[in-house]
Amino acid sequence: MAVPDGELEAVGRDAQAVIEAAKAEGVYVFAGGVDEAVPPVLVSADGAVAMGGYPWAPTLDGGFTVLELPSRDEAVAWAARIARACRCEQELRVFGTEPRSQGQGTDRDS
């Protein structure tokens, strides 16, 4: 994100407003970001731990917002809302879930 001087507070406020709108519309699943103060580690199948992430992976910049939406068109519309609020492009991905875990562990299904 390249936030112009003096706009960081407005970006935070606008981004939070989009999250609140997603919650109000019942499409919010979770949002957050990677804690850059905690370095990544690679854990192998035998439990061995090595400092650092995948050497080929780019540095993560920003956060994630996961919404449950009925169509790609609606996902694009929400991504555009987030992009306007954050003043930067958003990468849109489809998140696949393991079918047997659907509906488990969310407040929406309680």
From TrEMBL:
Domain of life: Bacteria
Protein name (Swiss-Prot/TrEMBL): Transcription initiation protein
